[in-house]
Amino acid sequence: MEPAVLGGKLASGLVAPLVKKLFVTGGPGAGLVDKPVRLARLVSFRGEQRTLGEKEVRRLAGRLVGDSLDSPGEPPFPRDEETAVADALAARLLALGDLDMDDVQAVRLGHQELAKQLQYRTPSATGGLSADACYFLDSVTEWACLHVLEFFTRRSTFVARTLVEQSRWQAELIARVDELIARTPRPDARDTAFERRYLPHAAEQYNRITIYGIDLRDSPDRWPLEVAYLSLEATGTGERTVLPGEPPEPERTVSLRAEDALRADDRVLLRGDAGSGKTTLVQWLAVTAARGGDRVPYVLPLRTLVRAGALPSPAAFLTAVGCPLTPPEGWAERVLGAGRGLVLVDGLDEIPAADRHRTRDWLLALIRAFPGNRWLLTSRPTAVRPDWLAAEGFRELTLTPMRQSDVTTFVRRWHTAAEAPEYEARLLDALRTKRDLARLATNPLMCGLICALHRERRGYLPTGRKELYDAALTMLLARRDRERGMEAVELGEEAQLELLQRLAYALVLSGRTEMEVETAEGIVERALPSVASAAGQGDAAAVLRALVLRSGLLRRPGEGVLDFVHRTFQDYLGARYAVEEGHLDVIAGRADDTQWEDVIRMAVAHARPGERAVLLRRLLAADSSRLTLLALACLEHATALDPAVRAEVEARAGTLIPPRSTAAARALAEAGPLVLELLPGPDGLTDAEAHGVTVTASLLAEREPSGALAVLRRFRGHPALDVRRQLVGTWDRFDAREYAKEVLEHLDPTRLFLSCTTAAQRAAHADMRPWRKIAFHGTHTLDDILACLPEPGAVEELVVQDNPEVADLEPLLALGSLRHLALFDCGSARCLGRLSALPLEGLEVVGRADLTGLKELASLQELSVLQRLPGTRLTDTLPVSARLQQLHLGRTTTVDTGLRGLSHWSTLREVSMTSPVTPDDWTELSRLPRLECLTLDASVLDLGPDAQPLPGVHTLFLRGYREPDTTRITGLLPRARILRV
Question: Residue 298's closest CA among 259, 332, 262, 337?
């Protein structure tokens, strides 16, 4: 019978009291003595102070056995064995006193093992018993032991002593484990120690950018990556799981930051044109991984690896790239095996085509042997076919050209790293105003070249940009590959130039920027006989492939088509070939086409002095403002030129630039963005000319925002009010935050209102210095208006116009210094009276606002109301306690009130009204002792001879007056100067 079954026949209430009587009561505490307290000292039936004798133990055992026989159901053994079983059970219970263990050890032993110990101590107890009796005896012994152990765990000393025992045991275990660790180091301890050396080394090794091909005297060729790194975008094909029943979705292009490419995908093939930043990105990923510690980076430049013949195994990764640190044996395999590696394979396009297949096999073998790691492979776009690694789960991404904001960031970081901040602003202005230069700066490589050349010339770009293009072409066509340590290219620089310029001229003549590959092959094939070094490199198709892959100037944007990476290279090379072939008439004949502007300018750069004079005279002969300005722009590239021709060009252009009026500025802007790089100033200009230049630049903002901003930026410190008003008024033509930072933050705000019309402008204003005068046009809640004010208490004048969202004006109480408020067409405005707590001196209300509470504004000195007033007198609505000095009333304002009550405000110096003037109105005016200035309708001339003259008025603005005779006016206002409106 199992103990659980026996428990069904014997209530715990019978066993628990028995167990409790078997043991003496322990005191509190942990029972800590010199020796552990054995069970023999705990039982109550041994020792000198027994509370339970052996007879009582036998009686309790007999009762337990008897109750089991009397319980319902079949008896567990024959009744004639009851006494023998009771004696045997008593003998086993009494054997508790013979066990050499304490209560903690007994609990750790368990009730079944404790029962076996009692059976072992009383082997003769079962002598003569039947099998059922023996089985019952064993079961009831286990059941009793279960209650014995339960009793032990509830004793106060047991709990405390158990904690002490555990603490001692844990301390001993820790000490032994520490000793074991000290004697036997962990298998990966050496790996960890090595990584503590390798990761900082990798972070330092790759934290430098090298710009190849630059040998200018003062230009650094390496600078800190963390300072100069620019986050570029990459584009790829986005995917979405199609639900059952949905048609398949077309591919869609998605953009993401290039450094985030490996966060969504573990395997990426990144394509990018020459100089687009692929290697820089690889270095950035290596540095961030090494510093983060979550991945172990391996940078593997293929151009270095293929020189050694066999591509390296993981064990040789560091040796192959010249790392001076020696890792523990098997370290790289353990890293990759744990999925902790970041493998960055750079420059697939930089190895011979014959090596790319074995490179692919090597890479795939690594990926399959070590899953779970992250892999990035870089290549130029045309090095391998689009699906080269698609079957292996590689996602393909392409680096995008730099945006204007990226160029600005790059230039600033370059000058910071080069410690040349004095050249930064001038170069940024040049990049914004010179369009062909801006087209060139579309990737980090070209931006670096421009920065270096600009710094080498002490802040000036070459007088002619031909020198810049020549340096760029030399770098891209020859020097960059040579300095990167690659094998000699198949085509020399001159051979590449000859073929490229023929392709460029064909595109220029066709007015296109792309051509079919077959067309390009035909052009190359016709040129090969005259280009000896290229003729030995294979057929036209092979030579063209080499040009596309290594020149850095050609690319394949789509299947079967070619174009130049920069339009400016196409124009430059096309012009070079046209001049060499003597096609000046062709060039001059296309001058009316704006697409040929850069070709003409580059042709002047390539031409000989006599040819330049011919081209420039052809431009002047057209007698066109645009072509005259184009001729002026060409002078930049004319190193040697007939002085008479130069003087004629400058004289003709001098009548156009600078513009001396707004009309001249508008006419000049018609010539197009070419004008921006020709605009002078601000030094040496009159205020009118400076204003004309800013008007011209503002008009060109939509067509060339970066160039227009560069011009306007130069005038941000100009003191003339008209110039400053023009700069403020053209804010909405630019990016709100950039314009605020570049221009508005530097303006003198005196007498200027800053107008916000969009949410973007509000957001930008929140980061600006406080303006005293500010206007909000359009729908803006008062909460939005207040939120964008950096210091609400600094605002003194506020204009809110065309805003249906304005209702309760109470929030304006936050503008504690507000002196003038204008509400134009804010029909929901109400609660004017709540503004009485403000120091308001001026208020303008135009539209249908609720005028309730207007009477409470006692601090007003100037008031304009252009809506119909309620009541029959002005004093019914206007603030009678105010000491008004100026009052302006609209045509419908006094329909019901006339000017009745106007004489109440004896402090008035200026009154303006556009409604007809009645004799009663004139009487009210005549009662104003301080009146000096009037604005009246011409109906004042119809007043009768009884109208009293107003000798104190010295200025009259007369609306609708056309008659030359002023006799009647001088009779009414003998001292007034008359201004017609």
Answer: 332
